[in-house]
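Batch manifest, entry 17 of 40.
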Amino acid sequence: MRNGKIRIGIMGLGQIGRHLYHLALENDDIEIPAVADIGKPEIIHYLLKSDGLNGPRYELRDNYLVNEKFRTRMLQLARPGDVPWDVFGVDCVIDATGRYRRREYLEAHLRTGAGRVILASLPADPVDRVVIPGISEGSAVSGDRLISAGSATTNALALLLQTLDKALGVDCASMTTVHAYSSDQSLQDYAHEDFRRSRSAAQNIIPNSNESARWVEMILPQFAGKLSGYALNVPVQRGSLLDLTCVLRDTGVTVEQVNEAMRSAADNHPRLIGVTDDPIVSSDVIGCRQSLLFDSRATLKAGKRIVKVLAWYESLGHACRVLDVVRHYSRLGGTGGVK
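Output type: structure tokens
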């Protein structure tokens, strides 16, 4: 930390990485001395401007992205370990590539000077901690160096399930995320290692696997062996929907009780959870900074114990949670390098 600011390096200036840069411009406690991406600095600058978000102006000067608060060195580098983070004095690195999720890659950031690494997605190997704001921050310790902030789907599912379980008692559940297409999907039919993902993301609803249910079982151990999950990638650029079917422990729970439980949670945790009574669609959730926006109009009851609920979410909300995790570890301090 320098001059009271948390110094963050970012690897990967895709959608989440660019959200992080814009969010840093809005806040006085964060600065970004360096970013790394496979793209040319001129292209990254162009994409940042095309995001269309209001905020301080910035321009590209000799491979530095300069704004009124800080300047950021733009590095065209492809892999963890290529970036000399120690040169830039970063407190932590956020890996937002979505590609380098194995521990060996994350440790490469540590070897080149990062005090901590915050993964903006789920890990492929065990890491020191998976931290979901609103649920598992209390488990974090200052010695953690490799941390995952989960995924947008994992954050939404964990918060929704915990809220319903505490208020009403959930025996088991199954979720489907109706998810905006991702950058690793092709817009035209193109050979992929997976048959279905070889089909055009712009023209198809594509069934896909999803890791969130497995990770939520670890984050909320009372659900071990009681969750299942699936994904449908749809031809939508932003705005995703979580469809959760719960089997409740007790009979007689009403739709109104379910909705009231979510309203109470939103009142207690407005930064994380919202409730809408409006007939919204996916584009209406763009810009939502909460982990989930509960759709009260969509709650359904089937039989005595089954409840189906819908909650909206999008990538900007997840970027906000990644920064929540960064700030939490900054307050903890310790050997991870964030002081």
